[in-house]
Predict the 3D structure of the following.
Amino acid sequence: MNKVFLIGNGFDLAHGLKTKYSDFILWYFNEAIQSFKSRKSNVFDDDLITIQNDGYTTPIIDTIEQLNELTNNKLVVINFKHYFFRDFVRKLEGLRWVDIEYQYYLELIKVYKYSHNDDTEPGVSMELINLNNCFNSVKKKLIEYLETIEISWKIVKPQIQEHLHNELIKNSTNSHNLFIIFNYTNTIKLYQNYLNDVPHQIVYIHGRLGNEKNPIIFGYGDEMDEYYSKLERLNINQYLNNIKSFSYSLTTNYQDCILFLASRPYSVSIMGHSCGISDRLLLNTIFTDDHCEEIKIYYYQKNDSENDYFEKNQEISRHFPPEKKARMREIIKPLPLSLPLT
């Protein structure tokens, strides 16, 4: 049986990398704070915010609580240039990247409902332009932030080494392995020694930092939603600028995955991927294909008594249509037979 590995942001987090959305936002505001000192100006201005600092000595922000204190400080006036970014700064705790992508899609739908009805002609509204500009600015800043993160062999995890050894080495006879990397980082390369011993293929499905031939994809990927077809029928391309399927066509990554899935039966091992619906286009294809014979969840152990196996199961369920729910229950490996990622 072939093996498919889904590598998501939880994989990077398991290695201690600061790749949460909150890490990015804290870095972003600290960069703004540093600009006051370097430029000796009391104003910071970019595509996302304007900050007016009236003499307040702003410390480095290490926590979400400190950021909240800054945004509530009367000596520091922060003006957000779009409510999309403002809302995510104000409710930062616990947000995942998949939540940002999903909320972007919900905002698209709101713009659609507001801008288009039986009494209006289809057109490009300023609400749509501003939303896309804001989303693209967040994407650019995200890339800038991720490029500051250093990945070293010192962060290799023995537990993950063991997982890969069991999955790759012990069962390597006639087995081919596909690593679908949803991250922009190359943390998987820390385990290259294990990969070299078995037939394998690595696909950075969402692009890779510093690789112009494999550009970063950040957006939404649920073409099964009822409103998606309505957006397409508008014949306004700007509504589809950040839909993942169109970006997939810029490389052969998606086709490479489909060819692998069609070749022979496979098992799926989920390592740090949230399985949220912003990736439904691809995950539905992977999970519901007749060749998929097993789904193994390497869950996140929150503490001694709690893990995210149950929530991950719920997320996976959303990718199965009603007629395939029974099949889903057959192929998902139960919790007693599953393992924590680290």
User: Anything to note?
Assistant: The mean pLDDT is 91.
